Write the structure tokens for this entry.
Amino acid sequence: MTHRRPVGIAAAIAVPVLLLVALLSWAFASPVGASPDDPYHMASIWCAAGPADGVCETTADPQVRLVPREIIDAACYAGDDTHAATCPKDPGLAETSKGNWNGGAYPPVYYFVMHAFVSGDLSASVIAIRVFNAALYVGVLTALLFLLPLARRPALVWGAAITLVPLGMFLVPSINPSSWAVLSASGVWIAAWGFLEQRGWRRAALGALTVLLVVIGAGARSDAAAFSAFALILAAVLAFRRDRRYLLGLILPGTLIIVAAAFFLSGGQSAVVGASTVVQNSSYDLPLLAFLDIKALPQLIAGAFGVWGLGWLDTSMPGIVWVSALAVFTAVAFWGLRRGGARKWIAVAASAASVVGMPLFLLLHDGVEVGHGVQPRYVYPLIVIFAGIVVVGFTRASLGLGRVQLVVLGVGAVIANAVALQVNLRRYVTGVDVLGPNLDRDIEWWWNLPVSPMGVWAIGAAAFALFAAVLVWLVWNRSSPTAEDGAEGGPVAVSPAEVVLAERSDAPGGARGAL
């Protein structure tokens, strides 16, 4: 057992490093302006600290600012997938009214933090923001992983891993505020749960991480503020106990719910809850529109797994991506339903209802059918929360899955990521009218880098493959090819994951399996 420990520790360290490399490959796989509404978000970042010469200048009209012309023209290729990412780079400033200064649709925190990376080089600034967001995602979730008791860690890892490809891999290392929304959704519910269970310094550290994750989400998007509040309620349900310490522990999540509500109301997006903003569909009455949207709603939800395109929705994913990614998610979620108790089932039902109810509400509010207005990235954070909660209750990091099952899941995720990354690169390097696997032929757009498009793809695909392989190895049951979860009773073999991660939990019942 002891001779495995150094290898296991090295493997545990390799997991976040490999994930970071995989995310960084996606950061370089898209040009400036590739994520949705990037010109708006870039202008908002450039103007987040107020007027500055050559960066963000005022005009006679308070709703109009002068920003670098490159920002305005950055997404000239959007909507035409045969158009490579070759946009004009005219010097000087240009007028725009599209920014957060005009109406305050988004909370200001995200834009203010990202303003620190603004420089005279637009491309370098965008890459710096993408790298920071990727590192923040990996760093915060890694810290959270090692603060959680052993029994809680699988839910964090599995919840994030089965929802990352392809939308998460695209959004996390982007300049879109949805990057922070994804990070917040991935961790806030389980950080708060850990806080309510633990004692001593771990409790304090998990409380600090809970605060950070709420501010990250609520400071980026108004809907992410609502998601944070919802996640805190789910954590309270999962941690429910009939004792005084639990009630006192609720002071922090209760306060954070108020903070999240304040962030939500501070953004213009909060107007969605007002009756004055309801839009009537010109073709269908409300019952018929609801009927049509309910039938097509699975397409919107599955969009997070590649059924919808990436970027400006103009980077279509082939079937091998969305079939593989959706199969991995569905298989693990279905497997998660084999174990649980009352608290888990309440949380699962609530999170599943939110995945369905939130986008349906937005569709009916805006008077539109699925395919118009409401995008998969709006509901994606709720899918991440559901994915984590549905695997709660297993005592083993493998969830009791057998070797063949683990390998199939890993291979499915690796294939989906590799193909999605290649397709995303192809769309911007040449446009999709150029066929073939070699991304280095007929290049029309690329960064000023010593690494070619094929090099970035090879690094990214290999890093994610190794990331998945190491995760599978860490939960590999050395003595039984058809492992069952230890909570079923009887002796179980100990895998390197348990060797590396095993520790005494300070939580009452911290090693419990089903809730």
